[in-house]
Amino acid sequence: MRALQYREIGAAPEVVEVPTPEPGPGEVLLEVTAAGVCHSDIAVMSWPAEGFPYALPLTLGHEGAGTVAAVGDGVHGLEVGESVAVYGPWGCGRCVKCAAGKENYCQRAAELGINPPGLGAPGAIAEFMIVDDARHLVPLGDLDPVQTVPLTDAGLTPYHAIKGALPKLMPGSTAVVIGTGGLGHVAVQLLRALTTARVIALDVSEEKLALARRVGAHETVLSDAEAAGKVKELTGGIGAQAVFDFVGVAPTVATAGACAAVEADVVIVGIGGGTLPVGFGALPFEVSVKAPYWGSRDELVEVFDLAREGLVDVHVERFSLDEAPEAYERLHAGTIDGRAVIVP
Ligand code: NAD
Ligand code: ZN
């Protein structure tokens, strides 16, 4: 089969021929119907050789959907041909976090060497993929795999971030979304679906701000050194009750802190390495700062329910498997509006 692999530190990913995998005991083989392209992969491909956490070559893609092609010994409850999406943050399935569906916070994944597909284990940007356990599959039913696959990360991650901040997003509140790309343009829609908050979107690109307005942002502000001041102006000097940073570099994290109202939640999702000093007087009183990772299994089901209700609609640009390297180039250049999806 063909797969998109990151083969050498610093090199561009390549489409290569690899053996089609066979499901071992307890595993499921999917024929991939769609795979999303996430900015985290670009971060992974920028890491140096020293301390690089995964074995190479690595088949990319941590947003996956497919039809069940075959099941290994002991797998029950799945029909061959069934359309499913992959819950990506795999855990051990047995610790207290996994028991609560929070496999993203599995206590034993590191110790047991369990990695998500595309982030250690072979990923979804291929004709076929192995899923380690049937519990990591969520039925798609009538949902279109191409439209839905980004929700497994670009939907689930902002959903988890926003769900934690819901108590702050009461009527009359304001939410700020920094970076309205793959995750951020879904975050705007989730905020509109789940809250009555006024949504202010920030980005460095006018095209992304136009997309943010199309998907429901009430206001858009160019993300520069004056952006926090503009958010303050738009909120009568008070600031936002929740700020979600989907970039996470030093300047956006500083903006996030400077936008925050007293008792706000500042949620840093982007992995740009920026940090926010916390201490008395560093931020408005009682601001909480969090840096969450992905989301839980039940939250993925909830996100799909929102999609079934028509409350989230990912803006998707399709690429063939052969065009996958170009999708990464375009994402790196900042010219993907919404999410790139590979259709093998
Ligand atoms: P993306 O490239 O689709 O979107 C990023 C957006 O940020 C783009 O619209 C870009 O124009 C904008 N941007 C860049 N610099 C900016 C700035 N200074 N101010 C405002 N906007 C700016 O990326 P994505 O796939 O949506 O990923 C977003 C971030 O979230 C990445 O850092 C990614 O690694 C991270 N991520 C984190 C998790 C997690 O679990 N914490 C999960 C998935 C992705
Ligand atoms: Zn991702």
Write structural notes for this entry:
The protein is α/β, with parallel strands linked by helices. The chain folds into two domains: 2-153 and 295-343, Medium-chain alcohol dehydrogenases, catalytic domain (Quinone Oxidoreductase, Chain A, domain 1, Alpha-Beta Complex), CATH 3.90.180.10; 156-290, NAD(P)-binding Rossmann-like Domain (Rossmann fold, 3-Layer(aba) Sandwich), CATH 3.40.50. Helix content is 26%, strand content 24%. It contains eleven helices and 16 strands. It has helices at 39-44, 96-99, 109-112, 145-148, 156-165, 182-194, 206-214, 227-234, 250-259, 297-308, 324-333; strands spanning 2-6, 14-17, 28-37, 58-59, 63-71, 83-86, 128-131, 137-139, 174-178, 198-203, 219-222, 240-245, 260-268, 288-290, 316-320, 339-343. The strands form three sheets. Strands 3, 5, 6, 7, 8, 15 and 16 form a seven-stranded mixed beta sheet that branches. Strands 11-10-9-12-13-14 form a six-stranded parallel beta sheet, sandwiched between helices. Strand 9 (174-178), helix 6 and strand 10 (198-203) form a beta-alpha-beta unit. Helix 5 (156-165) crosses helix 6 and helix 8 (227-234) packs parallel to helix 9 (250-259). The radius of gyration is 20 Å and the shape is globular. It binds nicotinamide-adenine-dinucleotide (NAD) and zinc ion. Residues 38-40, 43, 153-154, 157, 178-184, 202-205, 208, 223, 246-249, 251-252, 269-272, 293-294, 331, 334 line the site of nicotinamide-adenine-dinucleotide (NAD).
